[in-house]
Amino acid sequence: MILRNVAIRHGRKALSAPLRKSFLRTLTNDTISAETHSVERSIENQLKQTHSIEANINQLHLTDSFVPPTLASEASEAVLSNHEHKRHLKKRTGKLGSVVEKHYEPQQLVLNPPRPEDVTLELLMASQSHLGHATSLWNPANQRYIFGIRQGVHIISLEETAAHLRRAAKVVEGVAYHGGLILFVGTRAGQTSCVVKAAEMAKGCHLFEKWIPGSITNGDQILVKCNIKVVDKDDVDISSGYTKKLEEWKALKPDLVVCLNPLENYIMLHECGLNNIPTIGVIDTDADPTWVTYPIPANDDSLRCVQVIAGVLGRAGQSGQAKRLEAAAKGQVTWQPPEGLGSPEPDKKTQREASETNSLIDPRGTLDPRMSLNALTPEAQIAKPNPIIREEIPGEL
């Protein structure tokens, strides 16, 4: 009650007191009129802007150049005459000018790689095979392959590249002709397609992932899950007669290794050297040519250059395989089987039929007269197969 009386008393005093000037200003209409004038001015400015935009659009004369669409049957004579004139000019001038016959198609180097005899200096130049590294990164052992210096970069001699590439192609062709196993290695990004294609043409193996150290020196442990098959001189699989021997056979080693990036695969090249396996490698100006047996001085950083080299070597392997099969068709065998392979083991069915045939023959070496000659099966009359066979690993190593 005391608080309520105090509030009423003070409220009456506040109402009876005279008003201040600040309250009088808020109760006047000056501020309201000023705000209304500012709003009207902003509206007028927006209207002026819209009118100016419409005037600019009208100056473009878009409506004057617009032509309404017509039906095909209502084509004007001007359109027909212009079309006839265009056809006439195209007929008269269509055969003029130059025609670009040879042009670069990236997929052709993989799908249809060049042959060794198709290698030219122009092809190597277009593939950027002549570009080396900076002079500060060079290896002095590559001095004989360097043509000169251009803007601080070593230039590789294309004549040396062509000569060494043809020599490597001869080596690949000879190994394929004598039934050797060729391994193509390229572990850089973008080299997968050309490596697989080259191995497919040469009927070899390919590797486009990281090399596992010890795959050659300790291959019995690392490559234990790799499949091994035995083929005859005509590449026909005859592994059924060597089942027991293949289970105990050691891991195969390649007869030739083609490395497209030796800098990243130095461990593999070292293992090949320990096992006397010849190697072919693309040697840039910053690499050591003594790492490989047959160096090819070229730009290993150019994907197009690597595709050309892999395609040429793959074509050489394909040529060697074709010559080997052609010689085998004539009865000439260009290779020898590995030691300890021996003749194929006959299966159980053949052994049973052979025992039944032997039971029909009396000790004097003549057939039992009670049995006809039809009892002899064709398998018993066939001589032993040719023991000359070859081994290879399909797919990846």
UniProtKB/TrEMBL annotation:
Tell me which species this is from.
Answer: Hymenoscyphus albidus
Q: Which UniProt keywords apply?
A: Ribonucleoprotein, Ribosomal protein
Stored InterPro entries: Ribosomal_uS2 (IPR001865), Ribosomal_uS2_bac/mit/plastid (IPR005706), Ribosomal_uS2_CS (IPR018130), Ribosomal_uS2_flav_dom_sf (IPR023591)
Provide any one GO MF term from the record: structural constituent of ribosome
Asked if the Swiss-Prot or TrEMBL record annotates the protein with the keyword Ribonucleoprotein, the reply is: yes
One GO cellular-component annotation of the UniProt record comes to:
mitochondrial small ribosomal subunit
- Output the CDD domains linked to this UniProt entry: RPS2
Query: Is Ribosomal protein found in the keyword set?
Result: yes
By sequence similarity, the record places it as follows: Belongs to the universal ribosomal protein uS2 family.
Name of the protein: Ribosomal protein S2
In this chain, the stretch annotated as Disordered covers: 330-371
Alphabetical list of PROSITE patterns matching this protein: RIBOSOMAL_S2_1 (PS00962)
Q: Taxonomically, which superkingdom?
A: Eukaryota
**A biological-process GO annotation:** translation
Sequence ranges of Basic and acidic residues compositional bias: 345-355
